[in-house]
Amino acid sequence: MLREEGLPAAALSEPDAFTAFYRRFERQLLGFFMRATARPELAADLAAETFARALESAGSYDPARGRPDQWLYGIARNVLGTSYRQGRVDAGARERLGLPALVLDDQTLETIARLNPHGEATLALAELPDEQRQAIEARVLEEREYAEIAKELCCSEAVVRQRVSRGLRALKTRLTGETGEHPPAA
Amino acid sequence: MSILPQLERDLHEAARRRLPAPRPRRSWLPHRGAVATLAGVAVALAVALIALSLRGQQPPTRAAAPLKPPSYLGLHQLLDRFAELRRPQTAFERRVKLYWAPGDPARGFIPRFTRLATTLPDGERVFLTVTRVTARDGAAGQPAGSYMLSASLVGVDGKLNLLSGEPSYNHLWDYTQFPVLFGPNPHHSWVWVSIVPDGVKAVGWVFPPRTYVVPVHGNVAAALLPGSAGTVIRRVLWYGAHQQVVRRFVAPIKYVLSGIGIAGARLGAAQTEAVSQLRRLLGKPQGHFVPNFVCGGADIAIHWQDLTTFFRRGRFVAYSYWEQVLPTSWPLLATARGLTIGETPAYASRLYGRAFRTSRALGGTWSLATTHGVLDGFTYGAEAGPRNTITTIEAGPRICQTVIPQGLAHRP
User: Fold this and answer.
1) How many CB pairs under 8 A join A and B?
2) Domain hosting residue A129, numbered range
3) What is the CATH number of the domain that holds A55?
4) Which of A59, A80, A113 is the last residue of a domain?
5) Averaged pLDDT for residues B292-315
6) B74: Cβ–Cβ under 8 A, 6 or more apart, which residues?
7) Which residue among A81, A103, A143, B216 has the highest number of C-beta atoms inside a 10 angstrom radius?
8) Where in chain B is the domain with CATH 2.60.460?
9) Residue A73 domain flag
10) Residues A125, A107 within the same domain
């Protein structure tokens, strides 16, 4: 059995080796793109282009420079970067290889979406007012101290706490539909 | 069971289609004696030039004809400037077919101008080709009807090396100043190639702290420089017939990147103000604002070459400086202490000490907490290996937080 490092090079002479490589990293790469885009159809498209580029350049993989996943992530980041620049998913490698467009059914999209269970939260966070989003990112995602955040945002700690609290409440409302308010007493 | 079985099948089929690679014809293989001679001559010339340059460079005589953007070269101008195109085509060059994909000749490619410019010591060959830009290629930056001179690298297996970002040289890159990186080839070497006009006999490529002097053959300077991928070229020297420096190009470096913005363009500033500051610093952006299609398209982005800037609700919120596809006359961007893409994490640690951290997350990331905010980015290469390099420098709260290393690398 081939070691992981041997898969990219082996793909040049053995299609099954590339299939093994694909299976090894498919979930990982789809997860990466789900975290990047929060949209399963985009994640699938980006992953397809990344694997197509990997197939095209399988001979370039150099184990001395890093692991196969690092090499693949490098390609993935380039695909993401190119797509950033173009404002659409690049399809150059797939066109050169003659790959048909992906057909994605609802079940597949759900499976991909589950790879990033926080996708909806990411989108909801983006919709918050800037001051609430900044406070949540700094406190919850970056786990920084209130005092440090307050200094950076030029406000008091109490204001930061308030922004985090309001932001989290707004997120909860958007994600669950709950208002967080108690029902009126009968 | 894979999630996308259709993609798995399509890729398998594509891998199978790529299998029947034609065996290289004997005529493609370099003669061992010729290779040894060529390598010997190259080394001797390089040593001689380095020695001369160490003794002090003579003042420039006549500068080689500059090719200034945005001029577009006609065919006659190309012939005037490049002797390699003026010489008769050999029978071998007539037979060579440089296709981007089997059965898909490049549009506008003019076979009668294909020239084998030079052969590298490992047998790889550098061809010069001329392409007439068609209407469909206009987006590459040149109008339809103009001409491009390009360098193509062909491996010993006869296959075109497609691994450089933009192997064509056109007015966007001032044609010849900085070399293009191809590779790596199957031997894991990186090839740098530069087209130079008549009168240039050698070039000096300065990758601090090293300088490589490369002789010119057939209007092409090409060299195998193992381990050079990701490094940043800082200066290029052109040497004339008498080893004098006839042109000198310096990659301008702007020490402007920080966790709170890019020079005067502060994160959080109004879009018009930030763009105005960035235009003053970097010139006109490439293209127009495009919706950042990721994360629901909430951001818009605009690009200055390898710099992507993000705006949200009319505010400058983040930027990402990516690994350069081509070294060009475009300024390199760096932090105040000199950290830029292509440097190693070890170098970054020397600059910033323990504030600089790396992580294996997402295939390799780094982050740097400074008094002027947090910078982060991706790395490429073996963990803590000497050839590990910084591939992006980023800052600002991007919507897709989870794909950004910020916040990851600082966690224990």
Assistant:
1) 198
2) 119-176
3) 1.10.1740.10
4) A113
5) 73
6) B146, B147
7) B216
8) 253-403
9) yes
10) no
HSE-up of residue B176 (Cα within 13 Å, Cβ side)? 27
Chain B interface includes A114 (CB < 8 A): no
Instruction: Point out the residue among A19, A104, A112 whose CB comes nearest to the CB of B12.
Output: A19
Q: Is the pLDDT of residue B5 over 70?
A: yes
Sorting pLDDT into bands at 50, 70 and 90, what band is A9?
low
Q: Does A107 touch chain B (CB under 8 A)?
A: no
Predicted pLDDT at B65: 40
Contact B385 A44 (CB under 8 A): no
Residues of A with Cβ-Cβ distance to B407 under 8 angstroms: 137, 141-143
Within 8 A by CB and 6+ apart from B251, the residues are: B178, B232, B233, B234, B235, B327, B329, B331, B332
Name chain A contacts of B186, Cβ cutoff 8 Å.
Answer: 59
Task: Classify domain B253-403 by CATH number.
Answer: 2.60.460
Give the span between the Cα atoms of B185 and B189, in whole angstroms. 6
Q: Say whether residue A130 is in contact with chain B using an 8 A CB cutoff.
A: yes
Domain total in chain A: 2
What per-residue confidence (pLDDT) applies to B135?
Answer: 62
**The pLDDT value given to residue A64:** 66
CATH number at A148 reads 1.10.10.10
Separation of alpha carbons B201 and B49, rounded Å = 10
Give residue-wise pLDDT tens across range B126-170.
Answer: 998 888 877 654 444 567 777 878 888 888 877 776 544 444 555
More confident residue, B117 or B50: B117
Cβ-defined contact of B2 to A52 (cutoff 8 Å): no
The predicted complex's ipTM stands at 0.71
